Model the fold of this input.
Amino acid sequence: MKLAPLIAAFFLLPTGDFSAGVDAYRGGDYRESLSSFARAELDAGSGASWELLFNQTLAALRAGELRRAEAAAEKLAVRGGKEREPIRDFLLGCSSFTRCEWAEAEASMTDADPTSLDRAVGHARSAFRSWQLAAMSRDDWPEARRNVMRALLKLEELKKKKEEASSKRRKEKKEEKKIPPPDEKKDDKTEKKPEEEKKPKPPAMEPMARELSRDRVKLLFDRLKEKEQEKLKLRQTERRASKGKVEKDW
Done:
């Protein structure tokens, strides 16, 4: 991804925060450069030039502050007018491509969000559209045309990665289906202890006797009474017989 160089406007003296921002940028301290350009914009107020906002956008892109870069690029187009809109498009394309690379890197991590590659594709498409608008604005902008091709190549690369990821997920699902699920019934069974197996089973309960009717109860008592009378008569007979056999000695 090709970024444009800083602009040092001839009508803006390279002093104060602007000069400090340029020096910090060239020294690789992009966060300090961004802070310096932001202070310069604050001091300039509504009179801040589009060149200052351009430099601020570049510093924000280098520092990874993409939201600030996009906001500065939009203000650049407002301050610079319609003819500066292609520059805004170029810078927005740079921001979208950076987001694409971040999402792509996230997709390669363990336990990555499955939507990472989809987000990377979406950002790559945004970068392609923005760079295409910039490249179509004039013929003498080779950086914009090269970035358009870079976005197309990235889209092809991401398409292959998505196909590989889908194939891998299908393969994993097939392997999961091949593994038989554990037999829950076997797991639930508890092994019988030898002592428990030797213990005799308790006898089955006998069914309860049916309740006798009144007639049957009376009949039963009558028979018992008859038996008792028969026994009594038998005992009396035995007694009389035993008295007759006794010899008298008087």
